[in-house]
Each structure stands twice: as structure tokens, then as C-alpha cells.
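User: Here's a structure from my thesis project, written as C-alpha cells. My advisor, Dr. K., wants to see whether a designed sequence matches the one we expressed. Can you design one independently, without my sequence as a hint?
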């Protein structure tokens, strides 16, 4: 599943130092470096209590076991061990940045003294002096924190279950401590980037994570000082939460957090309430206002979960109960490799085409892209910029770099009846853009958007003037992950990642106008590293294959 990533670790020589949290390639380098550090320090700690005490300050037992591979795989058969498994797990990624930013400074003085002693492994010294480790910033910790928050919200996970290594149906070997969960609460409350949450939902979310802190505190028998600190912060967050939702005309609270007595009982050690009751209370609280106040909205996340949308039938129509076809479109080229088409939505057209790209080709595409990966940007009035709406890293791959890319384009020309592969004399694309390779860390997201250029300013430039708008999108899934689907928010449909498959849709009506029903977003990846490739097909090259319709708002069909 992650075999190509092992090769990636060897190939990468340069990575971007900024926005490390959104770049799984960069994270893999940090994990590899830290693992060498742990192993070297662990080896010499067996005979020296000083080194052993330092390790205990930096790691809890579960973290140490998972990082140096001493835990039996039979205990967690689903967990991928090694570097690729650590990078694929958002809990491990959070712990990585937490250790380096919060715990490493605490023991740095002792570690620097150790460096001077004879017999200290070189890996220990290299880690302490590493420019890559020094490049990690508080922004990275905030970024991985909100990756966990997105996963929690999108898939309705319980923070305590997440702390125990459970991500949906997957049980992993990761564990978060009470102190780590407490750091999440503080980031939500004190350091919350209002780009993520600007309307008060962060307070309710902080309380749900604080409940996880409480449970772990009792289980780990932490000091009373820590418990009192939690109590104080709980009351403070509740007060801020209620003030935020006060009706300005009456001074009355619009949303009083209903669980105060419940939390007080838990503080006092009352364990009578079941986990099921706790989750129900938490869910009721957050759902009361998350639809209105979350930047993503309730529908986006519920679509990501695959929940049926009652309103969706109004936006979509279907004349047949048949959902899957094997078609060759009377094309001799497709007789030996017919298209395996799954209809996700009939009108407008939304299909998933299975078993398109061989796994060996996918491995090569990743290998060629890996040194080019940088943080993705979005278009804005002031120019392209990085955005928390899109926590993706990407690269562009030219046809000349891999001879099988034109073969993929030729195949889809036969299936879609669109012109895709023609080039200008200089090698640039006429009928479509070059393949964009995108990679998402766990928790990575791209909020609902259209692929088209929506303003005259975007369309009027040298390139677009000659090739037109994006008439259609072809998206290839290059990995298997948990979660990470593509949600179509106006249709109430979701396409699930399946390695080697592709999703196809038209962005324009046949008269060239934009069809906003194809608004879509990338759901948070719950577990795994999500690789995709986008091929945007331009409109002017379709003048003969898909001529403009004289009637307005007519949708194009695949078959």
C-alpha cells in the first residue's frame, strides 16, 4: 500500500522548509531523522539511567514502542509499521510535532551537555543540530492540530477514542497523552487561527477535547495541580462560549452549553455515564450550531461520511437503476480494455472509471513528482496565496517526463469523446493542462470549489485566451486511504478513493457557461497519504468534438 514511499525517502534530497505540516514528504524526512535519534539514544540508555530518564521525559511507553518497532504486529494487524505507517497516521504526526516543539526545548540543555561526552552516537548529535528540525515552527503544530480537528468533525469521532489510537474502524498503535490532548485544547482556545474557526465553534470543540483530557487524567492518575488547571480552563471556555452566543438585543444566551453538570461530575470522579451517552451529548451540542458557523458546513462533512442527503434528489435526476457499465463505445482500441464505468450521478454527469492506471505506472508517477512537491496555492484578488482552505502539496508533470502519460490521455480521449492530447509547437498543451500531481497529509482538505475560472480577469490572460475555460475534469486516484473522498456538495454525492480509478465530470454547459452543480471538495483524509492527479480539459479544443449548443444550459453526456 505504501511501498512507493520507501523509495521516496531515498530519492528526496531537497524539501520545502515552510508549511511542513501539509507536506507528507517533508514529514517523512523528519520521522526518519527522529527515529534514528531515538534508536541511538535507546541503545545507550540500556546501561545508563541518565539517558533512560531523558527518553522518559521525551516519550511515553506507547510512543517509544511504536517508534522503535518493539511492539508485536499481531496486536495491531492493521497498523503499518515503519516510517510510512507513522506518516500515514495523523496521531503520530501530531505527536511528532508536539515532541519537537514542546518537549525537546525542555530537555535541550541536558541533551546539549550529552553531546560533549565521548561515545555519544552521531545520530544523536545530528538530530540536535539538524536544520530541518530547527525549521519546525508553531504554525506546523497548529496545522497538524487542525488536521485532527477536521478528522474529528468530518467523521464524528470521539476525541478520547482518537487518543486511544482509534480512527473510525481502524485501530492503530498510536496513543496520545493527556498533556497532548491538553495542548490541542489550548490551541483551539488560545491560539486558534480564525481562518479555521471564526464564529465560536472552537469553544464547543475545545470542550469535547477537554473531556478527553479529563478521562485520560483520571486513568493516568495525574497530579491534582493538573486537574485543577483543567477545571479552571473548562469554566473559562464555557464562559467565553456562552458570551459568544449571546443575543445582543436581550443579553440572553442563544446556546448555553448543556453539559456543565456532566463535566463537574466527571471532575469529581463520577464514572457512571457511559461513553455512548457522552458522545451523544457532545454531538448534540456541536451540531446545534456547526451548520451555521463552521466554514465547511454540516452538509460537506455529512457527504464525506456518505450520509444520504434528502435534498439531493432535487439536484440530481436519473432515468435508470443501472449503476455500472462495461463499455467499449464501438472503438477497437477499447475492445481489449473496455471502460468500467460506475454512474455516481446521471444528470449532471459524474462517473468513476475503474482499473484505468496500472499500479506500476502510478509508482513511476510518484517517483517523478516527488522532488517537485510544494505547498499548493489558491487564486485570490491579490494573486496566488497559500490558504487553509487547501492543505495540499502538488507538482506538475510534463508528457516528456514520462511516456505513459500521453497513453493515459489517449485512453480517456476514447472514453470521453474529448480532445485532450494535442500540443503546441513548444510542447505546451492545447486541449488540456499538464497533469497536476497532488498529495495530502492525513487530515488534508480542499474546501468546496469549482475548477473553472469564474471571472473575466482569470480568463483574460495569454494562456486562457487561446485554450478557453476548463470544460471537464479528469481526476486520477493514485493511492488508497481511509476517508479522503471527493464530495460534490450540490449533488450530495461522494466519490471514494480507489487506487488506479478516475473520476470524470463536465464543468460547463454545452454553451460554455459554468455549471455550479459540480462544486466539489476534498474530504479530510482520516488515515493514509492521499495521492491524486488532475487533468483539466480546456474548451476551445473541443470545437469539433463538443460544439457549442444553440440552447442555453444544456448538459453534456458521456454516453
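Assistant: Designed independently from the structure alone:
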Amino acid at each position: 500500500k505504501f511501498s512507493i514511499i520507501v523509495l521516496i525517502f531515498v530519492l528526496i534530497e531537497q524539501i520545502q522548509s515552510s508549511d511542513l505540516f501539509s507536506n507528507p514528504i517533508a514529514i517523512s524526512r523528519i520521522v526518519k531523522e527522529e527515529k534514528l535519534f531515538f534508536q541511538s539514544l535507546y541503545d545507550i540508555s540500556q546501561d545508563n539511567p541518565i539517558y533512560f530518564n531523558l527518553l522518559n521525559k521525551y516519550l511515553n511507553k506507547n510512543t517509544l514502542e511504536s517508534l522503535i518497532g518493539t511492539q508485536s504486529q499481531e496486536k495491531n494487524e492493521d497498523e503499518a509499521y515503519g516510517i510510512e505507517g507513522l506518516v500515514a497516521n495523523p496521531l503520530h504526526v501530531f505527536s511528532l510535532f508536539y515532541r519537537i516543539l514542546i518537549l525537546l526545548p525542555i530537555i535541550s540543555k541536558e541533551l546539549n551537555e550529552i553531546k560533549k561526552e565521548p561515545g555519544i552516537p552521531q545520530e544523536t548529535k545530528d538530530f540536535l543540530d539538524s536544520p530541518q528540525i530547527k525549521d519546525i515552527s508553531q504554525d506546523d503544530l497548529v496545522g497538524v492540530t487542525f488536521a485532527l480537528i477536521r478528522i474529528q468533525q468530518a467523521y464524528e469521532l470521539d476525541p478520547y477514542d482518537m487518543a486511544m489510537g482509534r480512527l473510525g474502524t481502524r485501530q492503530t498503535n498510536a496513543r496520545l497523552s493527556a498533556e497532548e490532548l491538553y495542548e490541542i485544547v489550548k490551541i483551539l482556545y488560545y491560539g486558534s487561527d480564525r481562518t479555521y474557526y471564526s464564529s465560536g465553534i472552537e469553544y464547543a470543540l475545545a470542550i469535547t477535547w477537554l473531556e478527553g483530557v479529563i478521562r485520560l487524567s483520571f486513568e493516568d492518575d495525574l497530579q491534582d495541580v493538573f486537574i485543577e488547571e483543567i477545571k479552571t480552563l473548562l469554566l473559562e471556555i464555557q464562559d467565553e462560549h456562552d458570551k459568544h452566543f449571546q443575543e445582543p438585543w436581550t443579553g440572553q444566551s442563544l446556546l448555553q452549553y448543556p453539559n456543565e453538570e456532566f463535566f463537574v461530575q466527571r471532575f469529581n470522579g463520577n464514572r457512571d455515564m457511559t461513553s455512548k451517552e457522552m458522545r451523544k451529548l457532545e454531538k448534540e451540542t456541536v451540531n446545534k450550531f456547526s451548520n451555521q458557523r463552521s466554514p465547511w458546513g454540516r452538509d460537506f462533512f455529512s457527504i464525506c461520511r456518505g450520509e444520504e442527503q434528502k435534498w439531493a434528489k432535487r439536484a440530481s435526476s436519473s432515468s435508470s437503476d443501472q449503476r455500472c457499465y462495461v463499455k467499449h463505445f464501438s472503438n477497437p482500441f477499447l475492445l481489449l480494455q473496455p471502460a468500467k464505468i460506475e454512474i455516481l450521478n446521471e444528470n449532471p454527469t459524474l462517473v468513476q472509471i475503474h482499473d484505468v492506471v496500472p499500479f506500476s505506472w502510478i509508482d513511476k508517477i510518484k517517483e517523478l513528482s516527488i522532488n517537485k512537491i510544494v505547498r499548493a496555492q489558491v487564486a485570490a484578488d491579490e494573486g496566488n496565496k497559500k490558504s487553509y482552505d487547501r492543505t495540499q502539496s502538488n507538482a506538475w508533470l510534463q508528457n516528456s517526463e514520462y511516456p505513459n502519460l500521453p497513453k493515459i490521455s489517449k485512453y480517456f480521449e476514447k472514453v470521453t469523446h474529448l480532445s485532450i492530447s494535442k500540443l503546441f509547437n513548444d510542447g505546451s498543451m492545447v486541449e488540456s493542462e499538464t497533469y497536476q500531481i497532488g498529495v495530502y497529509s492525513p487530515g488534508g482538505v480542499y474546501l468546496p470549489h469549482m475548477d473553472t475560472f469564474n471571472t473575466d480577469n482569470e480568463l483574460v490572460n495569454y494562456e486562457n485566451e487561446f485554450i478557453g475555460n476548463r470544460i471537464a475534469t479528469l481526476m486520477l486516484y493514485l493511492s488508497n486511504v481511509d476517508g479522503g473522498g471527493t464530495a460534490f456538495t450540490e449533488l450530495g454525492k461522494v466519490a471514494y478513493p480507489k487506487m488506479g480509478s478516475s473520476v470524470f465530470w463536465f464543468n460547463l454547459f454545452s454553451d460554455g457557461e459554468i455549471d455550479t452543480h459540480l462544486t466539489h471538495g476534498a474530504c479530510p483524509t482520516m488515515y493514509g497519504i492521499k495521492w491524486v492527479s488532475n487533468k483539466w480539459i480546456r474548451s476551445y479544443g473541443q470545437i469539433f468534438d463538443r460544439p457549442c449548443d444553440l440552447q442555453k444550459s444544456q448538459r453534456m453526456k458521456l454516453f
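When you compare it with your expressed construct, this may help: The two ends are 34 Å apart (CA to CA).
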